[in-house]
Design goal:
The structure is a homohexamer. Chain A is of the alpha+beta class. Chain A has one domain: Macrophage Migration Inhibitory Factor. Chain A is 35% helix and 26% strand. Chain A has a two-stranded parallel ribbon. In chain A, strand 3 (52-54) and strand 4 form a beta hairpin. The B-C interface holds B 1-9, 13, 17, 20-21, 24-25, 28-30, 32-37, 39, 52, 54, 59, 69-72 and C 1-9, 13, 17, 20-21, 24-25, 28-30, 32-37, 39, 52, 54, 59, 69-72.
């Protein structure tokens, strides 16, 4: 009966990327815990960059400063 | 002091349906737990069908396939 | 595909009361939104009274002061 | 590693108010728990007034009745 | 800046399984979204089987009836 | 009507620290948004260090390696 919530900043995540997250997590849960996928729900919540803060600063401001949070 | 979060897919839920969910849950909490309704908060969060997955598939895709999730 | 989270203080909620909450909410969702109950998940999360605050005070302190949050 | 979610009604919260919430909570967590701010994430979620209920009523209806929820 | 919450029933999930979920999801997020893993937080929340309901019934009751939710 | 959830690792947070978090956040919300504190609920959720991961590793393992997440 797992329920998985993914929260991330709203920055042009595509429909296909969302599908990859949903299928990938459902497969992981099935592989590790042997759960029936019909019972696994995955919810993706996109958050405006003004509404997410880390280190005390809005992500919208961090992005303006060139901090991407991406892999180098 | 209950707080209730309802997450469901964004599929034309009307203002009146939302009110029925809010009043119904608040009454249930009051009936079962004798809680003062002034302390019961209900939050409804609607999720785009691209952002909800079950059985590893996006609900938007399931809907295109004719799977409604409705009572038969 | 609804998912419902109920958060309340950990104050001797019985197994039967939990069942009444689960069945009552599932029925409400089915009545109002015509959702197949097989897709409705309800999760109850009990929170220690030291860990819940309202009006800026811990519920454990409010309870010592005789404030019950119950229906009068 | 704290994660803080603030849920409030969508009622013209400004970008600056959001920044004050993010910086204020991050500082509080750092002051009280000595956590490195780089590990503190704050997420603000705004909820439509039709989608929040208290005392069994939608906030949109409470606002029409002149109930503001503001400090007096 | 992703934050991922996994909610599942408390049924003897081992420390190693938890580690596999955490590393697997973090890798998935990094692969699909190119996010720096240092910014990805994964939280696992185990819920007592009395406190999770599906189809209007407590999971503890479903388990007694031999319904496992496992892959066949 | 704000609701605030604080999730942090279960590492000997005292009752007094919890009270400071609750009163501090309630005051911040009142100062920034002029919300009536009677409507502000704060919930603290402590997560076992095996159940929280960052950078793909369990916090329990990070702690064994001497990584504290504390201010330097």
């Amino acid at each position: 009966m797992p329920y998985i919530k993914i929260e991330l900043t709203r920055e042009n995540v595509t429909k296909q990327q969302k599908q990859l997250l949903i299928s990938g997590i459902t497969k992981l849960i099935s592989d590790v815990l042997e759960k029936d996928p019909a019972l696994t729900h995955v919810v993706i919540q996109e958050i405006d960059t003004d509404n997410w803060g880390v280190s005390g600063e809005q992500v919208s401001i961090l992005r303006e400063k060139g901090i991407t949070g991406k892999l180098k």
